[in-house]
Write a structure and sequence with these properties.
BirA Bifunctional Protein, domain 2; Arc Repressor Mutant, subunit A; binds ligand BTX; single chain; 9 helices; five-stranded antiparallel beta sheet; alpha+beta
Length: 322
């Protein structure tokens, strides 16, 4: 129904009270039958709406699947992202975003319920089942000098960790350069790709996968011992729309910081959120393998590791075995 998004909005903003069909009809200047039909249809789509005769309708909960109208209400608050594409199923939101970048030079968001071929770094697979997590690609569109890009992931990962902590209370930690862990289990990964020319970056396409409401048994066997979700760690179901809302505002804030500040300005906080200090870990970058302890992060984002023999190594984006 073409009134759906308006009715969703009215119910969304009046969740503490019943709205009569008459009132909705008057506000939208449509018939009461149209209101009733739309609400019936929404119920079939998974909205829980309490409808009481002579009182009206009250929204109790949202559909388990991502709903484009609600996402639009959330993203409308965004000062930066002005467009969003919501899908039930795609191969990968990152692939879709890269296609859309070709004829869209404004910032936008791609979200999908399911990804049939979710990608990690180096073409690894990202497990992205429906109704469990947030699988999203964000396209940032500004001219950015090349030298800055090595710190982008650090700003964004801090934003994701802050969001998880504030929404759920779980002690999310960043694993340099682009994962989020809770209690040494991975709950989020992201993947940053860029387009531009020799002097500047024009678009950043950042794919983020966050495990929200999986139970441990939902993960495939090979992830059982390394993956987790926020719900698994806190015992509480994450409201995906509230999470998305907070995440977008943290990310926008972090992105503005990234544009106007240096990594050195957030380095102390980043280091406090980081889970790699004071432990011996294995670092792999290309064919280079080093076992040692991380000792610092440089202002350009590179990680400094001291190996067991005492030699110092610098990494730009190593894989770290936890
Ligand atoms: P990564 O290469 O650091 O991590 C991939 C590795 O993480 C896999 O090899 C596997 O061991 C493990 N893994 C796979 N799925 C999960 C999961 N759901 N939870 C925890 N661990 C897992 C990290 O790559 C970047 C991932 C980005 C995913 C987003 S989702 C939206 C966007 N679209 C897309 O195709 N990718 C990005």
């Amino acid at each position: 129904s073409k009134y759906r998004s308006q009715i969703v909005e009215l119910l969304h903003h009046n969740q503490h009270q019943y709205l009569s069909g008459q009132k909705i009809a008057e506000q939208l200047m449509i018939s009461r039958t149209a209101v009733w039909k739309t609400i019936e249809q929404m119920k079939q789509q998974g909205f829980i709406i309490d409808s009481i005769q002579n009182k009206g309708h009250k929204l109790k909960s949202y559909p388990a699947e991502w709903d484009a109208d609600i996402i639009q209400l959330v993203t409308r608050q965004s000062a930066y992202f002005k467009q969003q594409y919501v899908f039930k199923e795609v191969t990968s939101t990152q692939a879709v975003a890269k296609e859309k970048v070709l004829d869209n030079d404004r910032p936008f968001i791609v979200i999908s319920e399911v990804q049939t071929a979710g990608k990690g770094r180096f073409n690894r697979q990202w497990d992205s089942q429906g109704d469990k997590g947030l699988w999203m690609s964000l396209v940032f569109s500004d001219e950015i000098p090349l030298y800055k890009i090595t710190t982008f992931n650090l700003f964004i990962s801090l934003a994701v960790a802050r969001t998880i902590r504030s929404v759920s209370g779980a002690k999310a930690e960043v694993k340099w350069p682009n994962d989020i862990y809770i209690n040494d289990y991975k709950c989020c990964g992201f993947l940053t790709e860029i387009s531009g020319h020799a002097n500047a970056i024009q678009q950043i396409i950042c794919g983020i996968g966050i495990n929200l409401n999986h139970q441990q048994a939902d993960f495939p066997a090979e992830l059982q011992h390394k993956a987790t979700s926020i719900k698994e760690m806190t015992g509480e179901t994450v409201d995906r729309y509230a999470f998305l809302d907070s995440l977008l505002s943290e990310i926008e804030h972090a992105y503005q910081q990234f544009l106007t500040h240096d990594f050195s300005d957030i380095k102390a906080e980043y280091k406090m959120y980081s889970n790699i200090w004071n432990r011996s870990l294995q670092y792999t970058e290309g064919t280079r393998k080093v076992t040692g302890q991380a000792v610092d992060i440089l202002d350009d984002g590179r990680l400094v590791v001291r190996d067991e023999a005492g030699s110092i190594h610098h990494f730009i984006s190593a894989d770290i075995e936890i």
